[in-house]
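Per your request, structure below.
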């Protein structure tokens, strides 16, 4: 199930990029379309993973299981996904999207640093620890154009 959720995260992000650049004519439109797909896919599915498959997810990543922090992290992901949908459906402006993207990417960059630390210090070389920094860099680059163009 964890691998399926991972595939769905990648698929959702890919669909979001395609739709954003296919239908979006301005950086604002690209960001408006891409944000809920990325945040919804990554944060929403991470929330599902953390709340309903926490033991499997922790084992897959080589982390401790059943931690209150793991559940708290899942609630953070859930809140972030909900806010991304509110911003999208309420039609809030691009600065609401940029704020969410900056918070989301900041969290993911710090999380990637934690995975890299675990890989180096704890010799935890699970696939998630190895790939997370690269995927986070790619995610950040995808948002770079629309955010930089708007600001």
């Amino acid at each position: 199930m964890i691998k399926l959720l991972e595939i769905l995260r990648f698929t959702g992000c890919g669909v979001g990029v395609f739709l954003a650049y296919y239908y979006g004519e301005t950086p604002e439109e690209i960001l408006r379309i891409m944000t809920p797909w990325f945040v919804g896919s990554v944060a929403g599915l991470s929330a599902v993973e953390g709340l309903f498959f926490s033991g499997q997810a922790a084992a897959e990543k080589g982390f401790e299981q059943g931690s209150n922090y793991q559940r708290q992290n899942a609630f953070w992901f859930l809140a972030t996904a909900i806010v991304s949908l509110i911003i999208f459906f309420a039609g809030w402006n691009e600065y609401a999207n940029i704020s969410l993207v900056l918070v989301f990417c900041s969290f993911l960059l710090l999380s990637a640093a934690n995975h890299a630390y675990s890989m180096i210090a704890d010799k935890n070389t699970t696939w998630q620890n190895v790939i997370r920094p690269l995927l986070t860099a790619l995610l950040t680059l995808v948002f770079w154009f629309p955010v930089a163009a708007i600001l």
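The chain has one domain: 2-150.

Regards,
D.
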